[in-house]
Amino acid sequence: MNYFKKILRFAKPYRIYALLNIISNIFYALFSTLAMISLFPMLNVLFKQTEKIYTKPEWTGISNLKNYVTDTLNFFVTEQSEQSDPGEVLMLMVGLIITMFLLKNLFNYLAMYFITFLRNGVLKDLRNELYDKTIELPISYYSEKRKGDTIARITSDVLEIQHSFLSILELIVREPLTIIFTIAAMLAISPKLTLFVFLFLPLSGFLISLIGKSLKRKSDKVQNEQGFFLSILEETLGGLRVIKAFNAESVFAKKFQSSTKRFFNFSNSLLNRQNLASPTSEFFGIAAIGVILWYGGQMVLVDKTLEAELFITYMALSYQILTPAKSISKASYSVKKGNAAAERVLEILETENPIAEIKNPIELTSFDSDIKLQHISFKYEDEYVLKNFDLTVKKGTTVALVGQSGSGKSTIANLVTRFYDVNEGEISIDGNNIKNLSKKSLRGLMGLVTQDSILFNDTVKNNIALGKENATEEEIMAAAKIANAHDFIMELPKGYDTNIGDSGNKLSGGQKQRLSISRAVLKNPPIMILDEATSALDTESERLVQDALEKMMKNRTSIVIAHRLSTIQNADNIVVLQKGEIVEQGTHTQLLALNGTYKKLVQMQSLAS
Ligand SMILES: Nc1ncnc2c1ncn2[C@@H]1O[C@H](COP(=O)(O)OP(=O)(O)O)[C@@H](O)[C@H]1O
Ligand SMILES: [Mg+2]
Questions:
Q1: What single string gives the DSSP state of each residue in 336-376?
Q2: Whose CA is nearest to atom 7 of ligand 1?
Q3: Whose alpha carbon is nearest atom 3 of ligand 1?
Q4: Which atom of ligand 1 lies closest to the CA of 531?
Q5: What is the full DSSP assignment across 148-191?
Q6: Are 398 and 569 a contacting pair, CB within 8 Å?
Q7: Any atom of ligand 1 within 6 Å of the Cβ of 410
Q8: Which of 8, 48, 94, 372 is the most buried (most CB within 10 A)?
Q9: The predicted structure's pLDDT at residue 271
């Protein structure tokens, strides 16, 4: 229940609905008891048992409640039957019963009506907060977690919680109240008989809790498995091309089927356990009623201490107690499931973002002098990827990072953009440690183009406009022209309004990359970071993209990570990395003259091409 309690704060804005629900439920409980009691005068009329009472009974205190109520009802019936014929009295009684049931159901509806706003409000707010958290959490979080699992938590776990919000109010307000009102009425009719009900309630409560014990664990398993198979689905859709090309359909299908099989087993056992609830409580209820029938029947027939009509009303009441008892057991399961779901949702919500912002961070709006990496060391997991690394990038210069794959080039891009935080040392922009800058202003200074262009299922225009809020069509077009994208965009069926498909898959690699560059150009940041922006391209589109990049880098500060060395020959400083350390740096000519690692790399590449 602890997790669920924490989720309760999401219900706070909607507490007025909870209140209205509680009020409606009080009336519901009241009228469901009155509905049963209204059977009594009806039976009296039917069996012509009405004691004639000609004077209005007087209220003498709560201890005399039962007599007062029966006398009043009898007085009412007497009065009515003196005035009109039995048929009409009967009609009146039937009318009374129907009215009571109508009111009961009206308040039932109202209770559900109000709680609907709370449930769906919680659902909406919880999803929104989860989504915000999903965006806020650093890249590193998702290299460890499965995406599908996060999706499962935002979709189905949240639904589970929404569902249990209904149950929790049923559990603590509606059903207990119904039981209390009903028991009060039963006590008024016969305290002796009611003793049996008191024996039965705790006993069935105990049995129900036995069934519910392992429910959270089971439900946990089911939800986890759901996350797992969503992950497989997500990966399958993302890698469909490779799966088909490698004939790996059966591998993935097997993986998926083994997950759905586990899901099948887990949810069978969960559902079967859950389904035990109603039958058990109904059976124990009927067993208790059997005892009451036997005992009460004797009171009516043998001892003659109870009137038959009262006994029938009493039976109706005690049957009525079964419904809430069943609902309570069901609701308590639902709350347990909600608790398991809440745990999974809170796990995301309560994950601390390791890339935190300080209080009152600096909002840097311009870049004036340099980016400095001073004595930085960094590791993703156990092994240091960068050790005591130093680098200065002066405003207006282009620094190229070269080196074998795995030497730590992309890591530097990750650190400068603060996707990760350094373990030691500091990175500063114009003398401000980037940890003291707001992330928004830091990233506002930078444009990033990576090897794989990240595009969204939307129009060309909107994909480019991501770089700048409220960009005009002219600005978008100007950016596309600089990025050598305008011409091919105009050839698309709907020009700038063409939808480019999921991840831009309706375009070629070079076209996609030129859209990414258009986006960066539109953003127009003072610092550009290019991480192997052309290495996924063929020579023809590489030439177009390279040309676009050079136009973009003009008058800017750039950190360029290049696979193909021919593309960075004009850089002001070329830094050669090896296993996270700088082995050489200088201009192209200086480095060739050194006759070291750089020269070897250049020779290797010219041999290859
Ligand atoms: N998210 C990550 N988690 C753990 N290790 C990583 C991660 N990303 C990269 N690495 C490791 O860090 C090292 C440097 O990687 P990277 O900077 O991407 O190299 P490259 O120079 O090819 O861009 C590699 O050994 C790689 O295995
Ligand atoms: Mg890399």
A1: HHHHHHHHHHHHHHT---SSPPPSS-B------SEEEEEEE
A2: 380
A3: 380
A4: 23
A5: HHHHHIIIIIHHHHHHHHHHHHIIIIIHHHHHHHHHHHHHHH-H
A6: no
A7: yes
A8: 372
A9: 86
pTM of the model: 0.80
* Residues whose Cβ atom is located within 5 A of ion ligand 2: 410
CA distances from 578 to 372, 404, 407, 604 (A): 20, 7, 5, 16
Strand partners, 403: 577
Minimal-distance CA residue to ligand 1 atom 13? 406
Q: Is 535 in the pocket of ligand 1 (CB under 6 A)?
A: no
Which CATH fold would you assign to the domain 365-445+528-534+557-609?
Rossmann fold (3.40.50)
Q: What is the pLDDT of residues 133-149, one digit of tens each?
A: 999 988 888 887 788 88
Atom nearest to 143 CA in ligand 1: 1
- Three-state DSSP class for residue 351: coil
pLDDT of residue 200: 66
Task: Tell me if 406 CB under 6 Å of ligand 1.
Answer: yes
Point out the residues of the chain with pLDDT beneath 50: none
Ligand nearest the Cα of residue 535 is: 2
User: Which pLDDT score is estimated for 50?
Assistant: 62
What is the reported pLDDT for 353?
Answer: 87
Residue 102 CA to ligand 2 center (angstroms) comes to 71
Choosing from 410, 414, 582 the residue with most ligand 1 atoms within 8 A of its CB, the one to mutate for a pocket test is 410
Second-level CATH architecture of 2-349: Up-down Bundle (1.20)
Q: With CA atoms as reference, report the closest residue to 399 among 601, 588, 547, 597.
A: 588
Domain ranges of the chain: 2-349, 365-445+528-534+557-609
**Looking at the CA of 450, which ligand is closest?**
2
Same topology between domain 2-349 and domain 365-445+528-534+557-609:
no
297-334 per-position pLDDT tens digit: 888 888 888 888 888 888 888 877 777 777 777 787 78
